[in-house]
Amino acid sequence: MPLISNILAQMITAQKASPLAAPEISLLAASKSQSALLIEEAIAGGVRVFGENRVQEAQDKWPSLRLAHPEVELHLIGPLQTNKVKQALELFDVIQTVDRPKLAEEVASLLSSVSSKKNAGDWKLATKSFYIQVNTGKEPQKAGVLPDEADAFIDYCVKELALPVVGLMCVPPADQPPAPHFALLSQIAQRHGLEKLSMGMSEDFETAIRMGSTCVRLGRALFGERA
Ligand SMILES: *Cc1c(COP(=O)(O)O)cnc(C)c1O
To answer: Which end of the chain, N or C, is more open, meaning fewer C-beta atoms within 10 Å of its C-beta?
Structure first.
């Protein structure tokens, strides 16, 4: 595993280089397809925030890691199916991929069943906050609300469903310069007073930091190429 201190140094250099950079930026390790052993290594190296793409994979890997490392924060950064919402709410501290009304409604309905203690049954809510994913590149195969629909969707989640939305997340098209996508995400967040911006991956995290990212999601930069 490349030295985490090297990546942190690159992050700090990018942060110092820009007046738009956020005062606090978290390094999220995108640990899809990585073994529990490698995750343990990253934790030993100082990583405190992890992101998984699939509920099932996280369910298999994380319960024992969570017990051993209660200080670690786990985020969902991949698409969420409506029938997996309850499992996701039990497992992840943060869900970054709310992107459509049906999903937001299912989340809100389960949250209210917990707070009213009605039909809560025996499950325990872990999720404290949510991001809305925006498909800034309008790519048909990609998750995320379309930019033109983002304002209305954010209002719906925050004002009507009262979801604790803290920020926005995006995965720009692989074949385009990322900066305009980061700028667009940041503008939408500012209009809604949302403070968190989850943007930037291994190839472009320094650009994302210079443009105000508060959470960079690093896979290959930390773990090397995925098998
Ligand atoms: C895999 C993944 C990452 C990390 O990608 P790298 O290019 O390996 O850094 C970040 N965000 C999401 C949503 C991912 O699926």
So the answer is: C
